[in-house]
Amino acid sequence: MSEGTSAKTVRLARGDAPGRPPMTPELDRLYDRLEDELLVPLWTEIGELMPESPRPDAVPHRWAWRALLEMARQAGDLVPVGRGGERRALALANPGLGGRPFVTPTLWAAVQYLNPREDAPVHRHTQNAFRFVIEGEGVWTVVNGDPVAMRRGDFLPQAGWNWHGHRNTSDAPMAWLDGLDIPFSYAIDSAFFEFGAEDVGTEETPERSRSERLWAHPGLRPLTRLGPSPATPLLAYRWEYTDRALADQLALEAEGCAVTPEPGHAAVRYTNPSTGGDVLSTVRAEFHRLAPDTATASRREVGSSVYQVFDGRALVTVGAASWRVERGDLFAVPSWQPLRIETEHGIDLFRFADTPIYERLDKDRVAVAEQEGTR
């Protein structure tokens, strides 16, 4: 047996099967020796290792916001926020991933809950992160000493290895969606974490953060920041601008301009103002609005994504699963599973995905049912 091993960990599939040689006593003995030496012949595994199309372990799944919020409130009564646990966050565990707290193999999604007048301590980690606010206000996230207001509809990205904590200055609790690339970082053994101060270090509650005052001016860039930044330097993408962009797209479409991805479907991508690329190196974030009586084409893509309903209702079909979704609900779309959304009265959806990883590796692929072939 190979050095450093004390137990047999390889178990080869035996028996006759298409593409495999017929079993003989000699082949059986060879398999015994291969197992002892921790070797696996390709001919027993090729169907699993090289399938004709992706076979994700993650499965389509929906989490109801009402249930999530109720359990977050219970946690608020029972679980303190402090050193060690760090955050009062409930992570979505995809039922296909063996109980791991991962919404997909590369993405983490959690509902974080902060009680009135409560602080979450400062820390930093190499995982990229963001916050998306489905309802409420009164919390400031403080990133490297810059207090950033969090309000309904705001998207707040934060690249890895930046100090951050949260402060609820209001008399009401607040919950929001946390998204991170924790599973990807975990899989490639790249994670680092460091504790910071017990409190966020400032009691400022400005209407606009310093990052917004410098970067949130459309088409304008400070001359002192002309170089590209690997992640967005803008810490808050405000709902009023997202809402206006989506409304204008649909209005232009009604005027005969070809500006939407498909009829009745407006969409925008949050971008890094220093490069025009994705806000984070591992995470793509978008917002989609479907007008009343709209159905999307069935779409597949390599890589996984998570949607949260911001407002409205729809019938969502992912692979063989279908759900009626409403405000706050979240659902996971595994790699290469077809997605279709139908709405009678209209729906707004926040989406985040791991697409930048696949694009950098030249592994991305998209197929739309109404179009021939893939790109």
Task: Specify the helix fraction band.
Answer: 10-25%
Radius of gyration: 24 Å
- Count of helices? 7
Strand order across the largest sheet: 1-19-16-21-13-12
* Straight-line N-to-C gap: 47 Å
Q: Give helix and strand order, one letter per element, not per position.
A: HHEHEEEEEEEEEHEHHEEEEEEEEEEHE
What structural category arises from helix and sheet content?
Answer: alpha+beta
Described by strand count, sense and barrel closure, the largest sheet is: 6 strands, antiparallel
Uncertain segments of ≥5 residues (pLDDT<50)?
371-375
Overall geometry comes to: globular
Q: Quick one: how many beta strands?
A: 22
If you average the pLDDT, what whole number results?
95
Strand % is 25-35%
Please give a handful of descriptors for the protein shown.
375 residues, alpha+beta, six-stranded antiparallel beta sheet, five-stranded antiparallel beta sheet, globular, disordered C terminus
Report on the structure:
- Helices cover 17% and strands 29% of the residues.
- By secondary structure, it is of the alpha+beta class.
- A six-stranded antiparallel beta sheet has the order 1-19-16-21-13-12. The chain has a five-stranded antiparallel beta sheet with strand order 2-3-10-5-8.
- The radius of gyration is 24 Å and the shape is globular.
- The chain starts with 24 loop residues before the first helix and ends in a 7-residue tail after the last strand.
- Mean pLDDT is 95; it is low at 371-375.
